[in-house]
């Protein structure tokens, strides 16, 4: 493989690390710390600021990961319709199964993250701090983030199988 392939794989992994690492940091460190912040208006403002900042960084890294992922498929010879993408034989191999699992988890995670980042998150920033509605929407956002993180773990597991030949 050419050096450009290895550079591309490295960028792909770094983008995934930043995206998933940021999600885990916010969920394991950031959110628990922010839950203890008083008054509720300050807590909401901090959650909103962190969420907006990470949303920008996160979606940029998603774009980088998608582009580098497509380039990786090209270098592995898997971006061909004939004999690969339209081949039931390919999708039945260990590599094909691992790739389909990875792509499936990516799709699920993007859907959940999109809903979280562009619908639930902004709504959480608009409700009255400390209200029952605020508690409900924060709880929903928290569960969506956990579900996305589980899909992220699925991506990592599928990527590991894929890198090891399925």
Tally the helices. Answer: 6
Q: Kindly report the average pLDDT value.
A: 93
Distance between the termini: 19 Å
Which blocks of ≥5 consecutive residues have pLDDT under 50? none
Count of β-strands: 0
H and E string: HHHHHH
Shape: elongated
Give the helix level as a range of percent: over 70%
Rg computed from alpha carbons, rounded to a whole number of angstroms: 19 Å
Class based on secondary structure composition and strand pairing: mainly alpha
Strand content: under 5%
For the sheet with most strands, the description reads:
none
Structure commentary:
The protein has 166 residues and is mostly helical. The radius of gyration is 19 Å and the shape is elongated. The protein contains six helices and no strands. 86% of the residues lie in helices and 0% in strands.
Output the keywords:
single chain, 166 residues, mainly alpha, 6 helices, 0% strand
Question: Summed up, what is this model?
Answer:
With 166 residues, this protein is mostly helical. It is 86% helix and 0% strand. The model has no long low-confidence stretch (mean pLDDT 93).
